[in-house]
Amino acid sequence: MNSTTVKGTSPETNPSVVVRGPDDFGVEERPLAPPGPGEVLVRVGAAGICGSDVELFAGTRPAAYVSYPVVPGHEWAGTVAALGEGVDWLDVDDPVVAQGFRNCGRCPRCREGATNLCEAGYAETGFTHPGAFSSYVAVPARLVHRLNAGADLEAAALLEPSACVLEGVLAAAPAVGARVAVVGTGTLSLVACQVLRAYSPSELVLIGDSPSGRELGTAWGATQCVSNAEAVEPGWTCDADVVIEAGSRQTSAKAALNAARRGATVVLEGIPGGPADGDLTDIVLKHLRVQGVFGASASAWGHVVGMFNAGLLDLRPLISHRYAVADVGSALSTLRERPADLRKVLLRP
């Protein structure tokens, strides 16, 4: 390590989960270079596993959105281990998170603020660049967000999916006191309940079947819970002004369209495992504005980190299982088995 240009310490090796291809992975000691100019080396505190990671391991993620071999891990938080040349606004041991999309910052989409839609080509930590299923991860400093001193790193590992929720809510721009609905009772949906609560909705309808999800949703602002079956019945609606869908079921989009009043805004965050149910004619007849969400922009990241630092997001209750990085196989088995208490699964170095 060149001590004249790098502040902090950088070990020579980095134990990491390496996915070489579909169902072909293992833990390897990989060489670790010190951070280059404009880079930050982060000591990983915790990393979450999401559905996109499961697809990566199984080989079902679209080829355009993964580059094997790769170290997964795009949901994470940690502390600064070393700073590359020119990084003078962070300090060693600062708790941090970082945006996953490695956008160019120059294309028309980046310049308009849609950094999640960068036209320079898809590049994301954990899918095309080494991620945080490891002891250390290196990222461009321009993507880093500093957390409050003493931040809960396990909870902060859920800021990436929370930023995706913020992307959708900011696009929907609900009015204070609006009627809102959330489809799903998983991580994204429950974060959406917390975010929407900040808008003081007159009603917040949570659509889903998980008893524990309903319990948490009610604690975080839901005024009514509706089953998935009821939400797709012909004629059912809750006349919501804004609907955030994050259920990722084939029926979720249909439930979202049903829940919306005429002229409402519907945000689709979830990706179902097959063709989605629903009649697109409903979009026309109900004069709906439908917004898809692909990841999170820099603006959404700024909002979500601000909420977290202000104590407005309670993410720890969403964590159900923890495994060491070396035990990633067991973590994946838990996700496949889907026990009743399953929420977010974390890996720890």
TrEMBL record:
Location of the Enoyl reductase (ER) domain: 21-347
Region (Disordered): 1-33
Keywords: Metal-binding, Oxidoreductase, Zinc
Biased composition (Basic and acidic residues): 21-31
PROSITE patterns xref list: ADH_ZINC (PS00059)
Xref: InterPro entries: ADH-like_C (IPR013149), ADH-like_N (IPR013154), ADH_Zn_CS (IPR002328), ER (IPR020843), GroES-like_sf (IPR011032), NAD(P)-bd_dom_sf (IPR036291), Zn_alcohol_dh (IPR050129)
Ranges of biased composition (kind: Polar residues): 1-16
UniProt-listed Pfam families: ADH_N, ADH_zinc_N
SMART domains per UniProt: PKS_ER (SM00829)
Family per record: Belongs to the zinc-containing alcohol dehydrogenase family.
Protein name stated in the entry: Threonine dehydrogenase
Organism from which the protein derives: Actinopolymorpha singaporensis
